[in-house]
Write a structure and sequence with these properties.
about 180 residues; about 20% helix; signal; globular; about 45% strand; two-stranded antiparallel ribbon; DUF4468 domain-containing protein; alpha+beta
Length: about 180
């Protein structure tokens, strides 16, 4: 009997609880996030929504992952000011992710195309903060009628060459959230 109760408790603690945002744009794991909020930040054509995934446990001062959902293709959305904190086009037409991303990598998932990058981001440890002490992951993907940009804090900057290997465990959760956002049409 004790074994069964212990097994049930473990299963409940570690089960990947899935919850969906009210708009249906994003499905998220209840293991890592306590809630999600979405808000219209641009009501003109095309509409743009902000998305905030609130973490169950803040990491180095980062209490949420965030992004935008723009209801148009990547070319149109990259020119909209509300998306500019995550991605934009510069005056020469070059695609830019974040302000301090060093390498932008093409990304294709099913019929979604776009880019990904691992920009540096801020962290806080006690009373000290460092604008470049953290490592983030940003993906910007579009299917032609919707563009989804999400930024995730993956951990402390370790100076890794292969970010996907260095942060492999965190990337599994991130991929699940990104893939869930692409599956909701």
């Amino acid at each position: 009997m004790k074994r069964i109760i212990f097994w049930v408790i473990l299963k409940c603690l570690f089960a990947p609880i899935q919850s969906k945002a009210a708009s249906g744009f994003i499905t998220y794991s209840g293991m890592f996030y306590s809630s999600i909020s979405e808000e219209v930040i641009r009501a003109d054509n095309p509409n743009v929504y902000s998305v905030n995934l609130v973490k169950r446990k803040p990491e180095f001062g980062n209490s949420e992952d965030f992004g935008t959902v723009c209801l148009a293709d990547i070319e149109i959305c990259s020119r909209i000011e509300e998306n500019s904190t995550l991605y934009r086009k510069d005056e020469n037409g070059n695609f830019i992710i974040h302000s301090v991303a060093d390498k932008i990598i093409p990304l294709n998932i099913s019929n979604w195309n776009g880019y990904e990058s691992f920009p540096l981001c801020g962290i806080s440890e006690g009373t000290h903060s460092n604008n470049y002490g953290g490592q983030c992951y940003v993906s910007v993907l579009s299917n032609g009628s919707r563009t989804i940009a999400l930024q995730f804090f993956v951990g402390k900057n370790k100076g890794c060459r292969d970010m996907k290997k260095c942060f492999a465990d965190r990337m599994k959760t991130i991929r699940a959230v990104v893939n869930s956002s692409l599956g909701s049409q």
